[in-house]
Design a protein that fits this description.
The protein is α/β, with parallel strands linked by helices. It has helices at residues 3-15, 23-39, 46-49, 74-84, 104-118, 128-142, 168-182, 197-206, 239-246, 269-279, 286-289, 318-326, 348-358, 366-385, 415-426, 437-443, 456-474, 485-497, 507-521, 523-539, 552-568, and strands at residues 61-66, 69-71, 89-96, 153-159, 189-195, 212-216, 219-222, 231-238, 293-303, 306-316, 337-344, 393-395, 412-414. It folds into three domains: 3-206, no CATH class; 212-363, no CATH class; 367-579, no CATH class. The strands form three sheets. The protein has a six-stranded mixed β-sheet.
């Protein structure tokens, strides 16, 4: 391995707490991270896409992307498809070798492993992760009636630390493999890309960069000077330019709606009307019937009529963007012009005001928008105020900490993780936390991110997640229990604090959470708590061999066992005495 790649790998391993892992496995994670980050700008957990180990079918990384989001669960898949009414799928396979040259036989084995994965009856030995992805991919295929824009794409990425020189023999192996995969007949596009040291180094450096897109913006006016705004424009862009803003070269919609607190609302009345206008062929009327798109960017570089936007978000127009994306194959759509505002500012307060002012055309009320947006920002500040040996950082916007090498990936708590941990521990609903996080929020409407909630229960649930993940990674907890980690966290909370919570806006809940926080800060006491929780799990009658725990009956058994354990150990008054 060359010195530059080795140096980058060491940096990556430190940031992701992989120092104790073998170098070959570090490199698998490194390759998975670089390639997946290139193809999708969502935040993701390394373990969610890593498949390398015995029985991996020569596949070290596997990622399924649906409608621009990385999917790791069948509930998440079905909810995303039902919400949008379409399915744009990408299947990414990654093989990573630390060898310093490209090897034709290894590339051939990689192709064979992918072919076997895609076959109706795989012949190769498959580990649990490969089997799980196979099951998930079969579910994607079963929803093929929703593939109205295109059939799936599949990307094969072979990574080593050598130099790719376009060797004729290796090229023949690649082209033959691509042809064989294409002949299966389920993909619109098949590719196999070789990545050498230079290419993987470049991809890693690009993970530190913000999203950037260049469009032609001819029909515009410049708005007058506005305090706190660097520049602002109002105008219309043709469909072919607008589509560049919202999707990548693979026709996959970007993850650029983080600041749009409603996300896509699916086939509601507003979206039906937007689509109806297009279906009637009223392309020329679209720009006067639609409220338009509001884009907020951190920086903009103009060159004549060509504008390069960097680090941008669509803060209003998520619905319109998704409908246009789903209609891009419609004959005549290129005649559509889209009203657009482009505002360049780095002022978070102004971004919030713009979001609140422009999000008013569908069901969500302004006060709801303001409360949710303000709570997220305040929660981010609260995380930064809590000082730990390893501080936690609340990731309100996807990949917002990528350019900060001093922050390790395990220290970052994304919105989906926060929702799942809080719902598991304080709403006692670990069986409901699978699926797309927007749907999870709707399930618990009014019970999560409420404006009067104390911040400490959210922080404690995040800290609990951080600790249990560390214990699993270090081998302190048996890895067989990792898939039940949200259930174990719920049990730990009941043991320490009891089942019945005080109101989440009360001082009493804050005092209890403060005591649990102090316990979790002590590694020995925290580990004892989780070991007790596993003991309770084992006594509950719930099958540890299950792949997923989605039944409410399982949760009821676990709660009953946790309460019995707490009563038996007389830890109710006060519950934390057990660990004094």
């Amino acid at each position: 391995m060359d010195k530059i790649t080795k140096s980058l790998l060491e940096t990556f391993a430190k940031q992701n707490d992989l120092i104790k892992v073998e170098e070959s496995t570090q490199f698998e994670h490194f390759a998975n991270y670089c390639i997946t980050s290139k193809l999708n700008r969502s935040s993701f957990e390394l373990e969610d896409i890593h498949t390398g180990s015995g029985g991996d079918s020569a596949i070290d990384g596997l990622c399924i992307i649906v409608n621009g989001k990385i999917v790791t669960d069948s509930d998440e898949l079905s909810e995303l498809v039902q919400a949008t009414g379409h399915l744009d799928a990408e299947l990414i396979f990654i093989q990573a070798k630390t060898t310093s040259s490209f090897n034709g036989s290894e590339i051939g084995s990689f192709i064979h492993g992918v072919k076997d994965f895609l076959s109706d009856e795989p012949k190769l030995v498959q580990n649990k992760r490969i089997k799980y992805f196979k099951m998930l991919w079969d579910e994607v295929i079963s929803l093929s009636s929703y593939m109205i824009n295109r059939r799936p794409y599949t990307r094969l990425c072979y990574v080593c630390t050598g130099k790719w020189v376009d060797d004729q023999n290796l090229r023949a192996v690649i082209e033959g493999g691509v042809s064989e995969l294409d002949s299966i007949g389920i993909f619109d596009e098949v590719s196999l890309t070789p990545y050498g040291a230079t290419e993987i180094q470049k991809l890693y450096q690009e993970t530190k960069n913000k999203l950037s897109t260049t469009i032609t913006f001819q029909n515009r006016i410049t708005l007058p000077d506005i305090e706190g705004v660097k520049e602002a424009y109002l105008g219309v862009v043709p469909f072919v330019e607008f589509i560049k803003l919202i999707q990548d070269e693979n026709q996959t919609i970007h993850n650029i709606f983080d600041d749009n607190v409603r996300d896509y609302q699916g086939e509601n009345e507003v979206n039906k009307k937007i689509k109806g206008t297009l279906e009637k062929g009223a392309f020329d009327l679209f720009c006067v019937l639609n409220n338009g798109i509001t884009v907020v960017a951190s920086s903009l570089t103009p060159a004549g009529n060509r504008f390069t936007l960097r680090d941008y978000q669509i803060v209003n127009g998520c619905q319109t963007s998704n409908v246009l994306h789903s209609c891009q194959k419609m004959s005549g759509i290129e005649d559509t012009s889209i009203p657009i505002r482009i505002i360049v500012t780095e002022d978070d307060a102004i971004k919030t005001e713009i979001t609140l002012a422009t999000n008013s055309q569908t069901e969500v009320k302004t006060e709801q928008l303001e409360a949710l947006n303000a709570f997220q920002k305040q929660l981010e500040l609260y995380f930064s105020s809590e000082k730990l040996p390893q501080n936690l950082y609340y990731e309100r916007r996807s990949q917002q900490y990528n350019a900060m090498p001093e922050i390790k990936r395990p220290q970052i708590i994304s919105i989906p993780i926060q929702i799942k941990t809080f719902a598991s521990m304080f709403l006692l609903s670990p069986h409901l936390v699978t699926g797309y996080y927007g749907t999870i929020v709707n399930r618990f409407k009014g019970k999560i991110f409420a404006p009067d909630h104390k911040f400490l229960p959210y922080f404690v649930s995040a800290l609990c997640y951080f600790k249990i993940e560390q214990f699993f990674k270090n081998g302190d907890l048996p890895n067989d229990y990792k898939r039940a980690r949200f259930q174990i966290m719920m049990i730990a909370k009941i043991i320490a604090m009891g089942k019945n919570d005080d109101y989440l806006n009360s001082n009493k809940i804050e005092r209890k959470c403060e005591a649990l926080k102090q316990l979790l800060k002590d590694d020995k006491k925290a580990l004892d708590l989780f070991l007790c929780a596993i003991k309770v799990f084992n006594s509950s009658g719930v099958d540890i061999e299950k792949q997923r725990y989605k039944a409410e009956s399982d949760t009821e058994l676990l709660i009953k066992a946790a309460e019995a354990y707490q009563k038996e150990n007389k830890t109710i008054q006060p519950p934390l005495d057990l660990f004094a």
